[in-house]
Amino acid sequence: MLTQEELKQKVARAALDYVLPLLAPDVVIGIGTGSTANLFIDGLAAHKHLFKGAVSSSERSSARLTALGIHVFDLNQIDRVPVYIDGADEIDAGLNMIKGGGGALTREKIVASVADRFVCIVDESKLVPCLGKFPLPIEVIPMAIAEVSRRVARFGGTAALRQGFTTDNGCQILDVSGLRIESPAELEAQINNIAGVVTCGLFAIAGADVALLSTQQGVQTLYSPRS
Ligand SMILES: O=C(CO)[C@H](O)[C@H](O)COP(=O)(O)O
């Protein structure tokens, strides 16, 4: 029986196998945030001579990439990102996700939106029939915390301020529990439309294109029904 850590290592290796054929001297790849993404970064470092560099979804990942000798570009300098590799907190069969457990959801959404392909790397504990057991992170402009909390209560959720945490964008995170997420894309649009919300951690309007799912039986590849 593989541990969750071993499952993460296997999916990080599978992500490396996925990315290696895409690497070329002019290629900049997108890299996410979290323990699974970290394992991918560590494996990628051995191949740094094969590609130009990376754009990253957090200061933490940028620091790790830089320390391993992978050049990190400002996204404003880059016009093409062939692939974005990142984990998730929950993913469903339609490759809709909840992300932001590490608080990097906004930059994750930005880098993912630039990338041609979002490849989500998860262990099987993250695959759920319906999103919402994992509290939904929402990045909020600090002055709007009380009002956004009241607004999300209308969707059936209870918001808790993530204590002692400030995002890379100088904002705060509300973690919303108790949501029943039947239409993830619809809820994503509704929450993102609340004044003061930077973005919510639902990735459903544009979910992942591919998921590499690490199971006890091996790594499975799932494709988005949208693609
Ligand atoms: O969205 C994220 C960070 O904001 C991560 O992708 C998510 O929290 C999964 O992390 P891990 O790979 O450590 O389980």
Widest sheet, order of strands = 2-1-3-6-12-13
The average pLDDT value, as a whole number, equals: 97
- Hetero groups: ribulose-5-phosphate
CATH class of the largest domain: Alpha Beta
Tally of structural domains: 2
The class by helix and strand makeup works out as: alpha/beta
Q: What's the story with the biggest beta sheet? A: 6 strands, mixed
Radius of gyration: 17 Å
What is the CATH topology descriptor of the largest domain? Rossmann fold
Number of strands: 13
Given the structure, what is the number of helices?
6
CATH architecture of the largest domain: 3-Layer(aba) Sandwich
Q: Tell me the fraction of residues in β-strands, as a range.
A: 15-25%
Enzyme class: isomerase
GO biological process, one term: pentose-phosphate shunt, non-oxidative branch
Subunit structure: Homodimer.
Catalytic activity: aldehydo-D-ribose 5-phosphate = D-ribulose 5-phosphate
